[in-house]
């Protein structure tokens, strides 16, 4: 593999040239090929050394299968899935991590297929567990996206704010939703809810291809590549792999970077121009997919490509110019209504780094579980970033060779000055930094990068020295992922009874009705939004919330009384709203119980649906 500016070794000096044990190892040079014993063919056929890797992998997956069959999610506490998981899950995760690390210790005796097999198993344990143990899909936002797809299937066309109000923004970036609507039709299912629980696993598996291509651009060391992939998987806890436009846009973002890093590193020549034109078409398709699907990712891509260009590592302007032109064309046409309405608020947040970062943590976590899982996530991210800094410092050869990955790791930081992005900018910046950070964090866990002849001198010493400490770091990070990713499942999980309750309300609601709830953390919260209005009173100013607490039934009846016949106004209080309100410090359980009791006792309301997961009331005709 060739790299920009690298002088390949001559035929007279092959990489495998023998050296004597008494000779001093040559000092690493920044332009030496980056390689290690992983590039040697296995000393023995793979089946001679397959027993232990196969046993470790099979044992880990067996423990996982047993654990998910014996995990009860009926009563989640404030630690979410963490305390609900059967202990066999943790044993399987430990065995999987140890088995993965053992496959990397002696690459002369390990078949190269074991590392990817262990990574796929890791993704199954990380991302498929929730799909198996929960009978319904997680995340209120995933249910919201299902509602957008349902709207496209129902209306058959895109609509504007005059019809959809604030929800028209999704029709201005319809790429993901249109594709999913086509998939629903193709599969013949009723809605995307039939498959969206498995989306985190699918999107994470697809992400592996561009990620590996990016890492392989800078090293052929399989230990480094797969350790970086493992760290990326365990540190990517921010949850943007769920059923969302961001999950697809991020895959395409890494796809663009893989194309640029691998195909635009050298100047074009007459012989390479036809091939370059093909890659430009591929890149253009990726960029179009990003731009029509997501608002933030094109901006992140622009600053990443600009960082590579300004640093003069990739001087071909085609990728950056192509991205900017397509992005601006969309912003000035299809997305213009949304941008015109929101531009004043966006401009006010520019430069407010403290505010943008502070709002990134959202509401204040309340309770031991919420606080502990929040700190687990922050410590996991901080540890990976510190390891990345250590890896860049102690690996000068790699730092020189993989400078573009360092640039890509720091390029998203200026976005802190751009916007809070709905209180999520800090999480999105972290996600876009992660590929480069994971690469150098992996370098911190591995022996110093050397040429083949230098590494060949004492491989056993390297294995002894770099065995337990890196394994402990991998185990800590892999275990920390679970509370970081699943620790708030009490908020994210909606049992079938809650889904059925809300569905009953919308099935009976005439066109023009109003559905009121404490907040939007419940399934189907946006169902039928093109014909039914929604109101979440915790979005109001605190003064109005206090008024509701003082006189719940009377205040809510007044808020709901403007609905004209034959439409009706409904109040829905569910398990998901209780969990979100309590764990994020909005209202306590006692306050929500007070609202429910007041409405239940009021002659202004009648109960229309109730089960173990919640209750729904309708405002009586005489109260309007």
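^ Assign residues to that structure.
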């Amino acid at each position: 593999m060739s790299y920009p500016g690298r002088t390949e070794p001559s035929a007279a000096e092959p990489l495998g040239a023998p050296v004597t044990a008494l000779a001093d190892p040559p000092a690493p040079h920044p332009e030496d090929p980056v390689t290690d014993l992983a590039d040697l063919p296995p000393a023995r056929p793979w089946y001679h050394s397959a027993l232990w890797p196969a046993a470790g992998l099979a044992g880990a997956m067996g423990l996982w299968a047993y654990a998910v069959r014996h995990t009860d999610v009926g009563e989640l506490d404030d630690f979410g899935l963490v305390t609900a998981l059967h202990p066999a899950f943790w044993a399987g995760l430990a065995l999987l991590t140890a088995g993965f690390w053992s496959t990397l210790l002696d690459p002369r005796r390990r078949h190269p297929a074991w590392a990817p097999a262990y990574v796929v198993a890791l993704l199954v344990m990380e991302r498929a567990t929730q799909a198996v143990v929960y009978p319904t899909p997680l995340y209120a936002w995933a249910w919201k996206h299902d509602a957008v797809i349902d709207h496209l299937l129902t209306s058959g066309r895109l609509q504007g704010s005059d019809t959809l109000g604030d929800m028209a923004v999704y029709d201005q970036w319809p790429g993901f939703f249109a594709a999913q609507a086509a998939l629903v039709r193709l599969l013949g299912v009723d809605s995307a809810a039939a498959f969206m629980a498995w989306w985190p696993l699918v999107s994470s598996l697809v992400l592996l291809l561009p990620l590996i291509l990016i890492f392989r651009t800078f090293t052929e060391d399989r230990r480094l590549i797969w350790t970086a992939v493992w760290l990326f998987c365990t540190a990517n806890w921010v949850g943007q792999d769920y059923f969302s436009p961001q999950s697809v846009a991020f895959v395409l973002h890494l796809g663009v970077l893989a194309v640029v890093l691998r195909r635009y590193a050298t100047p074009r020549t007459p012989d390479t121009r036809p091939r370059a034109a093909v890659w430009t078409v591929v890149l253009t398709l990726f960029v179009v997919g990003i731009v029509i699907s997501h608002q933030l990712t094109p901006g992140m891509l622009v600053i990443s490509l600009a960082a590579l260009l300004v640093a003069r590592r990739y001087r071909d302007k085609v990728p950056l110019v192509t991205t900017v032109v397509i992005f601006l064309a969309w912003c000035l046409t299809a997305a213009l209504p949304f941008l015109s309405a929101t531009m004043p608020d966006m401009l006010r947040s520019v430069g407010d780094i403290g505010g943008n970062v502070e709002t990134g943590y959202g509401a204040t976590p309340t309770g031991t579980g919420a606080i502990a899982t929040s700190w687990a996530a922050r410590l996991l991210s901080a540890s990976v970033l510190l390891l990345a800094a250590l890896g860049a410092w102690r690996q000068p050869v790699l730092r020189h060779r993989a400078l573009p990955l360092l640039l890509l790791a720091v390029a998203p930081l200026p976005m802190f000055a751009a916007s809070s992005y709905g209180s999520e900018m800090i999480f999105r910046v972290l996600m876009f930094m992660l590929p480069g950070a994971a690469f150098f964090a992996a370098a911190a866990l591995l022996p110093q990068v050397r040429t083949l002849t230098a590494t060949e001198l004492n491989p056993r010493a390297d294995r002894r020295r770099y065995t337990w400490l890196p394994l402990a770091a991998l185990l800590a990070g892999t275990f920390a992922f679970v509370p970081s990713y699943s620790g708030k499942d009490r908020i994210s999980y909606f049992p079938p009874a809650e889904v059925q309750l809300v569905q009953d309300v919308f099935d009976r609601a005439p066109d023009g009705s109003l559905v009121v709830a404490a907040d939007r953390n419940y399934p189907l919260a946006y169902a039928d939004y093109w014909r039914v209005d929604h109101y979440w009173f915790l979005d109001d100013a605190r003064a109005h919330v206090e008024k509701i607490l003082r006189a719940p039934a009377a205040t809510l009846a007044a808020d709901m009384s403007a609905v004209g016949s034959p439409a009706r106004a409904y109040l829905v209080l569910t398990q998901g709203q209780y969990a979100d309100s309590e764990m994020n410090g909005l209202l306590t359980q006692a306050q929500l119980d007070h609202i429910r009791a007041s409405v239940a006792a009021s002659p202004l309301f009648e109960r229309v649906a109730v089960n173990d997961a919640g209750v729904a009331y309708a405002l009586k005709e005489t109260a309007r």
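Confidence is low (pLDDT under 50) at residues 1-28, 30-40, 450-464.
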